[in-house]
Amino acid sequence: RFSTVTAFAFVRPSVRSSFARMSTTLFDPSPFYKFAQPDETSKFKMQQTMVRVKDPEASLKFYVETLGFKLVMYRDFPQWGFSVYFVAHGVDDVPEDEDERWKLCMNTPGCVELTWNHGSETADGPVYNTGNSDATGVPNGDKVKGGFGHLGITVPDVYETCDRLHKLGVTFHKSPNGGGMKGLAFVKDPDNYLIEILPQGKMITKPVDCLGVKVDDGGGYKDNSK
Predict the structure, then answer these.
(1) Tell me, what DSSP letter sits at residue 157?
(2) Nearest alpha carbon to residue 194 among 126, 110, 132, 137
(3) Does the N terminus or the C terminus of the chain have fewer Cβ atoms within 10 A?
(4) Which of 40 and 13 is assigned the larger pLDDT?
(5) Secondary structure letter of residue 134 according to DSSP
(6) How far is it, in rounded angstroms, from Cα 144 to Cα 194?
(7) Nearest-CA neighbor of 85 among 111, 54, 46?
(8) What are the C-alpha distances in Å from 196 to residues 39, 68, 108, 141?
(9) Rg for the chain (alpha carbons), in Å?
(10) What is the pLDDT of residues 134-180, one digit of tens each?
(11) Within 10 A of 206 (CB to CB), how many other CB atoms are there?
């Protein structure tokens, strides 16, 4: 689920040398570090990722009140039966003028566009497939391995953040000491999409996490797509 380069950061130092040797047989993306950005793309921004949500109120409460996002802009399209809500971190003041809101939103990197198809909130159970070994929406009930994996946020302290989220009743897919990769976590939003929680600095571990899992326990690595 991680690239070779990303996974390398989580491997114990004692095995990094063998891991590095093994990684040479895989795709080497390092030349792209030095690839010159085309002049025509110099002002491009990675502005949004869109996920469909069942209940906009539940989703906005989670992203705004629990994860600290800011509602930057929303639009209703009753003629087409859907509404969109753009949320982001790093936004202080949202203009009252609609044109200024649009401009702010379109120039804010890393927005999440929550899309509500009107009427989905009345459905029983989950509505959208999360892409991670999920049978939602599959006619024969088989779990599918979708292309979407997760959203991700970074925080000053993963363990302290997870303590707070646990107290708020957030569902954990993986606590900081769970699984094979220590020091990061996955929580679920109201539609069961995974949100990865990573540190803004050095990857550290603590003896016990919010679910009481000890750093030397927690089982092995699990591929979320399987």
Answers:
(1) -
(2) 132
(3) C
(4) 40
(5) B
(6) 16
(7) 111
(8) 33, 15, 21, 27
(9) 20
(10) 989 888 888 988 889 999 999 999 999 999 999 999 999 999 999 99
(11) 16
Location of structure tokens 């491997």: 11
Question: What is the rounded distance in angstroms from the CA atom of residue 69 to the CA atom of residue 72?
Answer: 9
Q: Is 196 a catalytic residue?
A: yes
Longest dimension (CA), the chain: 60
Selecting among 57, 113, 121, 196, the annotated active-site residue is 196
pLDDT at 7 over 90: no
What would the mean pLDDT of 203-215 be, rounded to a whole number?
96
- For 215, which DSSP code? T
CA 11, CA 146: separation in Å to the nearest integer?
26
**pLDDT reported for residue 161:** 98
Over residues 96-114, the mean pLDDT reads 97
CA 204 to chain centre: 20
Mean pLDDT of the chain: 89
Per the listing, tokens 């094979």 go with: 180
Query: Would you call 214 helix, strand, or coil by DSSP?
Result: strand
- Looking at residue 8, its amino acid is F
Percent share of the chain, pLDDT over 90: 76
C-alpha closest to that of 88 among 113, 65, 66, 57: 113
